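Schema walk-through. Below, the input block comes first and the output block second. Nothing else is stored per chain. Lengths vary across the set, and this one has 227 residues.
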Amino acid sequence: MSDNINILDILKMCLKWWWIIVITAVVGAGSMYTYSEYFADEIYVSKGSFYISSAEIDLEKITLSTLNANARFSETYIELAKSDSVLEQVRQKLINDGYNIASAGVLRSNLSFSVKNETEVLEVSASNRNPELAQAITNAVLDVAPQKIKEIVKAGEAAVVDKGKLPILPSYPNVMRNTALGLFMGVVIGCALAFLIEFFDLRIKPDNDLEQMYGIPVIGNIPEIRK
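--- output ---
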């Protein structure tokens, strides 16, 4: 293989070993589809949200600086919502509702919090293989966290905006996305294999290999004579 490789050479190499690329692409896509469809755990996500402000707001006197301050406080409220004191109370509520949650740490691993569009609204997402439990966790957090945070900061207002809904379809795995990723990785691996085959093949095959290596035109060649 010549040391100087350009895009055209790479395209020719891929076309030459197209069957390897097709095989690795099919294997990659098929493997990811099979894993996602039959082996990966289905995860359901239930989302809800609540509003909390750093102080009682008079709508007639509200200013941009007030909103910005509340948005900054939202990050603090997220940390409070993830604290053991809040989640332990959430866990107790779930246990009373008939759900077995081992610890606040286990509960925390099923939860995520985010600030919605840089506002004072916090979004709660609970994920679990059981869709009913995912919804129950979200709603338990919404029942406990706003008032618990208000008690801790000793100021502000808190209210639930959206309750958690029962998820009908799993959010994970995304079969189509994973299949496309497997296809892409298969193509990449196939191209890499084709390149390695060409790279370690030190035989000089076309005449232009000699011209590229030594800069001397080929005058003639001796054919192979088989007995």
